Amino acid sequence: MTLAAAGSEIERLIALLARLPGLGPRSARRAALTLVKKRETLLLPLAAAMAEVGERVTVCSVCGNVDTTDPCTVCVDASRDPSVIIVVEDVADLWALERASVMRARYHVLGGTISALDGTGPEDIGIGRLVERALDPAVREVVLAMNATVEGQTTAHYITERLEPLAVTVSRLASGVPIGGELDYLDEGTLAAALNQRRPFR
Amino acid sequence: MTLAAAGSEIERLIALLARLPGLGPRSARRAALTLVKKRETLLLPLAAAMAEVGERVTVCSVCGNVDTTDPCTVCVDASRDPSVIIVVEDVADLWALERASVMRARYHVLGGTISALDGTGPEDIGIGRLVERALDPAVREVVLAMNATVEGQTTAHYITERLEPLAVTVSRLASGVPIGGELDYLDEGTLAAALNQRRPFR
Prior knowledge:
Number of domains of chain A: 2
Function (chains A, B): May play a role in DNA repair. It seems to be involved in an RecBC-independent recombinational process of DNA repair. It may act with RecF and RecO.
Strand content of chain A: 5-15%
Structural class of chain A: alpha/beta
Keywords (chains A, B): DNA damage, DNA recombination, DNA repair, Metal-binding, Zinc, Zinc-finger
GO molecular function (chains A, B): DNA binding; zinc ion binding
Largest sheet of chain A: 4 strands, parallel
Shape of chain A: globular
Zinc finger (C4-type) (chains A, B): 60-75
Helix content of chain A: 40-55%
Family (chains A, B): Belongs to the RecR family.
Number of strands of chain A: 6
Oligomer: homodimer
Number of helices of chain A: 8
CATH class of the largest domain in chain A: Alpha Beta
Strand order of the largest sheet of chain A: 4-3-5-6
Largest interface: A-B, 57 and 58 residues
């Protein structure tokens, strides 16, 4: 839909903004208008930040994280435990685990899951590179932190098989009741997992 | 919240994206990640479009619309009826009315409403300029297309009083049941307006 009342530059901006996740056509128009109104404080800094990211950000050749350096800040961080690799589907998952700040370990970003439907095989998501990294004698544990979805768990099972011959412990995230969760609102699968994996109260 | 795992450039991009309406911290992270992944097709074009808009877009000195020209495309469009001015609160409202494409008229964008609470007076939203425009003998009708809110209607009443001495017809948008609306879900005010302003069925 074109806006004869706005310049074609604004129309183009709206069309591009609408392609961001979380923004539909209506919110893209609102966002464009906010940008136009906040030219100095938002529009120009955001344009500059995007250009900067576009110029400098790259994918880490070791773990698949995005950063301005290669290897990334996480991979070269000497204060991290080199014996643990946490395998995640996406960079967003890496960020989420970092915000939880429980383990200072290394990561391996698959960038997807094995999916027969989409034709994504093990090598498309760099599982070979993960096995190579796990061959390093310094690595003692691989934590599979895939999403608790069918695709995520299929991928986790496949990786477990591939790592079986290696001298590494393969672990996975605990399943159960989320913190703050109410039993009444949880699905049967989660409740079953929480019951089956119950722990002593201590 | 900082992301030690991402570069500071990405952190800055996320912080700026989170200031757009419709994007919270979580969706701003998703948007940033999408941008990084779609560098060529989305990130760089969007950065360029923003820089372009920042450089070229300006506010029309006649009606308050945003455009790359001043006066704007709407104001200089000779095919539009010069005898009608549609008064709106915001540029977004102008765009919405243009999408409805019912009247090819001129506009006057107030950029706000009269608000005792916020200390916004008639002159802060350019009502004086509207009165000046309405003094032009070519103008025969002023359509008040303010939001159906207390502030919008207060502003509409004030403008009506200011235009009273002039030789222009002042009209307002019809109130009633929105197209596709179900009576059961509508508030009493809307139903009362729809009943009071009922029309012959023809």
